[in-house]
Design goal:
Elements: H1 2-24, H2 32-44, H3 48-56, H4 65-78, H5 82-108, H6 111-122, H7 128-132, H8 137-154, H9 159-174, H10 183-194, H11 201-209
Helix pairs in contact: 1-5, 1-6, 3-4, 5-6, 5-8, 8-9
Amino acid sequence: MKARIVPAWVLLVNAAVLSLTFYTWRFSYFGLDDFNNFYWIQRLDQSFWEMLWAIVNPFADAFRPFGWLFYSILWRLFDWNPLPYHIFAWTLHACNVILLFFLLSKTTSSALGAGTGALLFAFRANFADIYWSFGTIFELLALLLMLLALWVYRSDIPFRWKIVTIALLYLLAVKSKEMAITLPAVLVLYEICFRKHKMDSRLAMFFSYSPCLVRPSDIPGLSVSALPLDPSPITWIFPY
């Protein structure tokens, strides 16, 4: 009974901190990045199928198309109403906290230790942008997909389905934010530390071919925005 009470208590504390944080930032509007993105959504006027093709095509030269898809959907549904945007972003952050808690819990076999780690991750001063700017949707999506890939990697599902799922999550994560190219390195470090698969030949082959899912423009330092440059004024899109 006590073993069940501790995880529930830890999760309750994390939920209370997150709820209080989100309530504190309920006044949030949009940041400069948001206005820039809203401009390009209207300027490019891409269809759903065009955005979907940019996501599934590993060689598409598009700017973070998976995150862009959610930007576009929310823009078409809610226009300039900021609350639904932030609720979506906060939901992603809450999912990341929950995933991190369960990953730490399985790794450390300590609900209290996992809860402490999740709590430190849930509320940080340098995460302030998450609470007031929807422009962080790219980082939130990429992290969610990376944590899901790590969860799948440590699971006991058949190896071939595990590799397919991780490859798909990796592709979507890279299409969300360039930082996701580090996922293979994270999995290698996990394998070195915990010896989940004993580094068999199939795993080595997967790590060898995983860079094929990354374009040169996805590498930090080589990344160039696929959005066209336009000197025309953009003030017409602002609501004031």
